[in-house]
Amino acid sequence: MSLPQRVDHLIVGSGFAGICAAIKLAEDGETDYVVIEQAGDVGGTWRDNTYPGACCDIPSQLYSFSFARNPEWSSSYSPGPEIQAYLQRVAREYGVTDKTVFDTELEHAAWDDDAQVWRCRTSSGEVAARTLITGTGGLSAPRLPDIAGIETFTGALFHSAQWDHSVDLTGKRVAVIGTGASAIQIVPEVQQVAAHLDVYQRTAPWVIPRNDRRYPRLERLALRHVPALAKLYRTGIYWAHEGYVPAFTWQPKLGAPAEKAAILNMRKAITDPDLRAKVTPNFQLGCKRVLRSNTYYPALAAENVDLVTDSIARITPTGIVSGEGDQHPADVIVVATGFWTTEQPIATRVFGRAGRSLAEEWSNAGMSAYKGTTVHGFPNLFMLSGPNTGQGHTSVVFVVESQVAYVRDAIRTMRDRGYAAIEPRANAQRRWNTDLQRRMKHTVWNTGGCSSWYLDSHGRNTVLWPKSTVTLRRKLAAFDADAYDIEAAAPTPDREPVA
Fold it and tell me: Sign of the CA dihedral 96, 131, 432, 290?
């Protein structure tokens, strides 16, 4: 479809968040919406991350929409291509694809106080929208490391989220920079084909066993034809993961059994004492993202792999020089250094009531929002996967559905009561974040002795939610108009109707 000049709701992004918002708005009769997607297909993270071994670390039955279960998962932890195919199917079957303008990037969005709409400039033209709903997430903008000489490398160099499939790694000397969630999936795959692999580790992660299994045919048939069984699977997995919350948010010592499992996982695969010492974490489990793999440690122990723990001094045209001055030749460098999680790029493009961007509003104290969804000074802006809604233990899809329920109720309230603009009161947003950061002080993310991508430049955790998702869903269950400044439609004769 082509971009209209005006819509009630503009949804930015077509990953889990954008697709969910579009489906649920349509269910409420809010059919005057459009989704803009900067790429040529839906899927978000799972469209972009096509690296070898890409797989989810949350069980498939929970990492999917509650209203669109998938009985066709091949295993308990679904591989990336299956998740992408699932999102494509859901978007198509629910009509979201037909309401999406592809290859269209949001370049600038500014709140028009007089007209009470968002004036949005995109790469496909301009559109005015009553509400602006962002579903761009925190894992959408790859972050390259600031390493001297990186631009001089003459071999192939790419980020894990921008995998260059034209590059054949067979028989090559490959360097992987990073040991996070993507890297531990990439390393075992590359190890099998590369002549030599150097893995550059800054901090050793905790890696627990991945209890994955393929679903046999009879089990898949049962999941397809017995909806109660699929619901039981999902419920059981959900509560099992909620059981991790106390160890992360209240008493980190409760994570000791998981630490023992991780140590056993490492010792089963690695016998060399020097390598064992290098891969043993020096912080409490949970402080950084807990990783799952049965193949990462065996790959590190392979003859053609070296784990490099020295710092990287610079990159040369032919390889990498460590802080100790050692030169490591490389034909290919894979950068697995994560994303812009605490400085989301979309924040520089969204301008509120005072003409300031979200990035400017957040520059002094870091990202913050009311209930992770709305922001004072930015009327009718709804952020899905916004500040402090991330999860260190469970499915983000559960949170997305919770936020969308809140957005639906807000829009429903606006319709029913004739509100033209809503924004959270400054004191309500301040109280929410003060309480949130107070709770954060006791979490393993703040006390566990590590530096992680959860923390911003101010040392504040602006990514994760410091309580159970049960609590978050309850907080988002209903729109609380008393926490908002409300505006009726301005009595302008030439104003276009909002309904």
Answer: positive
Residues in the chain: 499
Rounded to a whole number of angstroms, the CA Rg of the chain reads 23
Please give the structure tokens belonging to residue 156: 């192939």
Tokens at 161, concatenated: 């989220």
**What per-residue confidence (pLDDT) applies to 342?**
64
Question: Residues 42, 15: contact at Cβ < 8 Å?
Answer: yes
CA 350/CA 199 separation, integer angstroms: 38
Question: In 10 A of CB 435, how many CB atoms?
Answer: 11
Give 299-319 pLDDT, tens digit per residue: 999 999 999 999 999 999 999
CA-CA distance, 198 to 191, in Å (whole number)?
9
Structure tokens at 330: 């490389």
Do 14 and 43 form a contact (C-beta atoms < 8 A)?
A: yes
What dihedral angle (degrees, nearest 10) is formed by the CA atoms of 409, 99, 339, 441? 0
Per-residue pLDDT tens digits for 433-456: 999 999 999 999 999 998 888 888
Kindly tell me the burial class for residue 261, based on how many C-beta atoms sit within 10 Å of its own C-beta (0-12, 13-18, 19 or more).
Answer: middle
Residue 495: per-residue pLDDT: 45
Residue 494's pLDDT band, with cuts at 50, 70 and 90, is very low
